[in-house]
Amino acid sequence: KQEVTQIPAALSVPEGENLVLNCSFTDSAIYNLQWFRQDPGKGLTSLLLIQSSQREQTSGRLNASLDKSSGRSTLYIAASQPGDSATYLCAATSGTYKYIFGTGTRLKVLA
Amino acid sequence: GAGVSQSPSNKVTEKGKDVELRCDPISGHTALYWYRQSLGQGLEFLIYFQGNSAPDKSGLPSDRFSAERTGGSVSTLTIQRTQQEDSAVYLCASSLGAGRLGQPQHFGDGTRLSIL
């Protein structure tokens, strides 16, 4: 049974800092892994999706990596800004459609 | 519309009442998902639709929960005889399709359900 864990649960950093969010999964036979951000009272916004055959994806200041053998994915945020403050969730799918979500990392970027 | 639309955005009801939540997916998206997010918890998968069919209903918490999708578009999630533990945010997502390659899921803003 797939389990997804995110550490840390919360993180505060000063503006401009580079940071890494971690996501671990127990079943390495994943099809893909997706990173989302969630703002308070809102739904999830897709940030990056990494297919199982890929090692990383990049979008602007965001870079997500995937290491299936170790059961880990990281989301790297460069030059953080206050607008990056949100909860970041990762989700892995081992089947064709069912995503298993972590409980998220609540990020606060201080101006 | 451009995104996934859910209604109502907020619903407060008394214990024992039935509620119906609606999801309008992005046009052309064949896959539709319902999740539940309780305070401090991760997203809990409820049900998945491919077209109008629901091949996986395993996440529905009890037989008080049901969902349907018509015309390969709008979906409704119905909760009968609501209980206080049903209080949560119910999120709907859609994607172009499912399958091994996967497609990004696009989420609505959810329905915040409060059972008094």
Describe this entry's structure for a reader:
The complex is a heterodimer of chains A (111) and B (116). In chain A, the strands form 2 sheets. In chain A, strands 2, 4, 5, 9, 10 and 11 form a 6-stranded mixed β-sheet that branches. Chain A has strands at residues 4-7, 10-14, 19-25, 32-38, 44-51, 56-59, 62-67, 72-77, 86-93, 99-101, 105-110. Chain A is globular and about 40 Å long. Chain A has 111 residues and is an all-beta fold. Chain A starts with a strand and ends with a strand. Chain B is an all-beta fold and 116 residues long. Chain B has no helices and 11 strands. The chains are: A mainly beta (111), B mainly beta (116). The A-B interface holds A 4, 31-32, 34, 36, 41-46, 49, 51, 89, 91, 93, 96-104 and B 4, 6, 31, 33, 35, 40-43, 45, 48, 50, 56, 91, 93, 98-110, 112.
- Tally of alpha and pi helices of chain A: 0
What's the total helix number of chain B?
A: 0
Number of strands of chain A: 11
Q: Give the overall form of chain B.
A: globular
What is the topological layout?
The complex is a heterodimer of chains A (111) and B (116).
Chain A: E1 4-7, E2 10-14, E3 19-25, E4 32-38, E5 44-51, E6 56-59, E7 62-67, E8 72-77, E9 86-93, E10 99-101, E11 105-110
Parallel strand pairs in A: 2-11
Antiparallel strand pairs in A: 1-3, 3-8, 4-5, 4-9, 6-7, 7-8, 9-10, 9-11
Chain B: E1 5-7, E2 10-13, E3 19-24, E4 31-37, E5 43-50, E6 53-56, E7 65-69, E8 75-79, E9 88-95, E10 106-107, E11 111-115
Parallel strand pairs in B: 2-11
Antiparallel strand pairs in B: 1-3, 3-8, 4-5, 4-9, 5-6, 7-8, 9-10, 9-11
